Every structure is written in C-alpha cells, then in structure tokens.
Amino acid sequence: MSEEIKYVTLLDEEGNEVEFEVVTKLDIEEVEYFIVIPKDEDVEEAIALKLVYDEDGEELFVPVEEEHELMMVSEAYEILFEEEEEEEEE
Question: Which of 5, 31, 42, 73 yields a CA-CA distance of 20 to 30 A from 51?
C-alpha cells in the first residue's frame, strides 16, 4: 500500500460504520500495521490493526489480537515515538 492513509472506516459489533484516524503506520517483518484511534473522540487507548488480504486480493484491516504480535507492535511504536520526541527536542 503506497498511498498514505489518514482515516479508515471499520464496522463495529452491530455493523455500524466507525471512522478511525491513523496515528501511524508500521512495517514490521513485511506486514503493515496501523495504530488508530476513533476520529473526533478523546480516548487514551489506541487500536492496533494489521493489513491482510482476502482470497480475492481485497485489503482488510483486522485487529491484532495475538499477545506476542501485539507486544511487537507496541514496542515498535514506543521506539518510533521516542525517536520522534528526541528529534523534536533537537
């Protein structure tokens, strides 16, 4: 996925569309991960999504649920966030 994504629309448990703002995109081990937060809502917790492809080649965002994978994404995000803070301080 080459273009920069700023927002994604996902379906909640009831099938309602919910728009999320993309905080950052991480490429880890040839997989694209997205850290998102609900658009226009003041929340503390972000959601990690993984970009996968269905059998027809359509892109799908799925929540990262496996603990080891979630930890890997979380650690990569923390490193990126620390690097950005250091750059801002310079």
Answer: 42
- How far does Cα 81 stand from its chain's mean position? 14
67, 16, 37, 31: CA torsion to nearest 10: 50
Domain ranges of the chain: 7-89
Q: List the one residue out of 73, 39, 88 whose CA is nearest residue 62.
A: 73
Give dist(CA 25, CA 36) in Å, integer. 9
Report the relative pairing of strands 59-63 and 47-53 from DSSP bridges: antiparallel
What is the C-alpha separation between 80 and 59, in angstroms, rounded? 25
Model's pTM, two decimal places? 0.80
The 3-state DSSP class for residue 44 equals coil
Residue 67 phi, psi dihedral angles, 5° rounding = -60, -45
